[in-house]
Specification:
The protein has a single domain, classed as MetI-like (MetI-like fold). It has nine helices and no strands. Helix 1 packs antiparallel against helix 2, helix 5 packs antiparallel against helix 6 and helix 7 runs antiparallel to helix 9. The longest helix has about 45 residues. Keywords: Amino-acid transport, Cell membrane, Membrane, Transmembrane, Transmembrane helix, Transport.
């Protein structure tokens, strides 16, 4: 089996590297975008304005209870019927971002709720607006608390990117499907894919643990 893996790598290493680069690009963009969107949704959910709370909760419940694959299909196959044509790269990135943001927002909301209300009241009493108090006082403390769950969500995001192979996203799984079809060595082909995903998720997990330890003593 090892010889088969080495043969596949020798013949298709360009496809694997190309797919890995695309997977990394999609993962990094989705990671940043989902963190920003998730923060906004979390603020909506704890807002004093009822309309924003309803919008935030509706977004979370709808997205969390809908399969990621359906959301990817919506952006890739559904939007063209409305006259909006997206590339597989953009559609996949949007699907991952929207899906992950719902889970990140719940983690951030829990972090914000763990901050004593007196912090917000003191910030407002000092003359800060609601947004300023959230930005300069509450959110920095909340992010320290939610580093572990955020890290888990980012790792899940990378693993969920494997679903993009179904829309020809030119990612790692897409190339692996083609290689498997050409070589008929399915197990060996996906062993290499697993190794590549581990090269992304293991360092990310180590980074999250390091950040958690640093912030505990900050």
């Amino acid at each position: 089996m090892l010889q088969n893996i080495l043969d596949i790598w020798s013949e298709y290493n360009g496809e694997y590297i190309g797919g890995l680069i695309t997977t990394l690009q999609i993962s990094v963009i989705s990671l940043i975008a989902s963190l920003l969107l998730g923060t906004v949704i979390a603020i909506f959910c704890i807002s004093p304005f009822r309309t924003l709370v309803i919008i935030g909760r509706a977004y979370i419940e709808f997205i969390r209870n809908t399969p990621l694959l359906i959301q990817i299909f919506f952006f890739y196959f559904g939007l063209p019927s409305l006259g909006i044509q997206l590339s597989a790269f953009i559609a996949g990135t949007l699907g991952l971002t929207v899906y992950t943001a719902a889970f990140i927002s719940e983690a951030i909301r829990a972090g914000i709720n763990s901050i004593p209300k007196g912090q917000m009241e003191a910030a407002r009493a000092s003359g800060l607006t609601y947004i300023q108090a959230m930005r300069y006082v509450v959110l920095p403390q909340a992010f320290k608390i939610v580093i572990p769950p955020l890290g888990n969500q980012f790792i899940n995001l990378v693993k969920n990117s494997s679903l993009l192979g179904v829309i020809a996203g030119m990612d790692l799984m897409y190339h692996a499907d083609i290689i498997s079809t050409n070589t008929f060595k399915t197990f060996e082909t996906y062993i290499l894919v697993a190794v590549f995903y581990l090269t992304i998720t293991v360092p990310l997990s180590i980074l999250v643990n390091w950040l958690e330890r640093r912030l505990k003593h900050a």
